[in-house]
Amino acid sequence: MATPDFIRTIRASAGQQLLWLPGVTAVVLDDEGRVLLGRRADTGRWAVIAGMSEPGEQPAACAVREVHEETGVRCVVERVVLVQALKPITYPNGDVCQFMDITLRCRAVGGEARVNDDESLEVGWFDVDALPELNEHALSRIKQALSDEPTWFDPAV
Description:
With 157 residues, the protein is an alpha+beta fold. It contains three helices and nine strands, in the order H-E-E-E-E-H-E-E-E-E-H-E. The protein has helices at 5-14, 59-71, 136-146, and strands at residues 19-29, 35-40, 46-47, 49-52, 73-85, 89-90, 96-111, 120-126, 152-153. Strands 1, 4, 5, 6, 7 and 9 form a six-stranded mixed sheet that branches. A hairpin with a 5-residue loop joins strand 6 and strand 7 (96-111). The two termini are 30 Å apart.
């Protein structure tokens, strides 16, 4: 994930201390029920599309922007799937972040799936029963997005 300019500005004064940041995950489905995935340039692993909200940006607008920027696919948001505070992450450079993730179910409405920026090595559509190896974060979000269950909130207090 490329570091947005506003984060670089914050880091200039905050150093590497923990930053609490808003993020979105987009589970994008096409008319055939396939899931859009990108193979990340930073880890080499397949993942659902995700990114950070810019200051003042609404979560749905962020999801639509991130999906198009990373994959060339245009989508619309259908519903909120999950809201969850993720565990802190320490990046290789020592920066520490923790994300409040809002996962959104999206429907593709146009564009061609392709590598559209430097954040992905590959982009593709996958049948739900033929997914590449994914981490638990991605698998649980796909499962929740495909279910008819209401929005899930982590009940831990």
